[in-house]
Amino acid sequence: MENVTVPTHFDMTLYKDQGSIRYVYFLFTIIVYLAILIFNTSIIVVVIKEKSLHEPMYIFISCLCLNSLYGSSGLFPRLSIDLLSDYHLITYPACFTQIYVIYTYTLSELTVLATMAYDRYTAICQPLHYHNIMTMRMTAALITASFSWAFFWKAIIVYITVRLPLCGNGIIRVYCSTWSVVRLSCVPTGFNNAMGLSVVVMTIGLCVGFTLFSYVRILIVCKRSSSEIRGKALQTCLPHIITFVLYSLSFFCDIVLSRFDLNLAMKIVSYFFSLEFIVIPPLLNPLIYGLTLPEIRRKNPLFRCTAKIAAISKPSK
Description:
Blueprint: E1 9-12, H1 21-49, H2 56-84, E2 89-91, H3 92-125, H4 130-133, H5 136-162, E3 170-171, H6 178-182, H7 190-224, H8 227-257, H9 264-292, H10 294-299, H11 301-313
Parallel strand pairs: 1-3
Antiparallel strand pairs: 1-2
């Protein structure tokens, strides 16, 4: 405990010695961030403007896009500054703010996706009662519960992390993460580690379990239904299944890999996952939903144009 410090700044050591390549990284970062802003904002605007899209499924999709904008704001502006700067220091409050924003985004992504699974289950398995169950009040309650879960648990984790005495300030990451700060502690961190993993496992377990239950019931109903109903169910469910599976795996892998001392190859894998779950879903989610759901594609000129380009460029048989 002799070397306990109360740092005013953390040093982001991963940005050092990049040379001129940092300008390439910066340009790529700006392009990706602008694409995320344009794609997600376009879906949110269309859902708000078009009364025909004022239904639970599209409201949940717009919440997913809004969460993507929220999470991206916690990474890309700071990442752009660090790529160009010669000094890679982040203040203590800014670091914990970034942790809170990024990880409330990650947990909210899972809970919103699980809520969307419930919406699909109700629509397909209980179609006659769907509008009585999924009222606007119920939709608002589910959205509130989805985000409240993430904001509540992450606030507790950040609180117990802030209280740790630290013996260093070097963070080997491109952004602040809970474990990168916890591992600087001068005291045992078993409680912090157990708490963080418990919240992650509990969130993933509940969301994955509920989603699997929903889709098992959907498959049972589809098996007994006509080919037309099966096709419509597949059209609305497949984008959600792809999004949920990819996100759950990448998020869980990042959490697990970040807690072990890894060799060089595995560290590269860990760095990939640490960015993948923040970069890829916000970029692909609006594309998946915007291009696969006809109602959004017809109302959104951006995705309508993209679909036409894709159709023209597709080689004829």
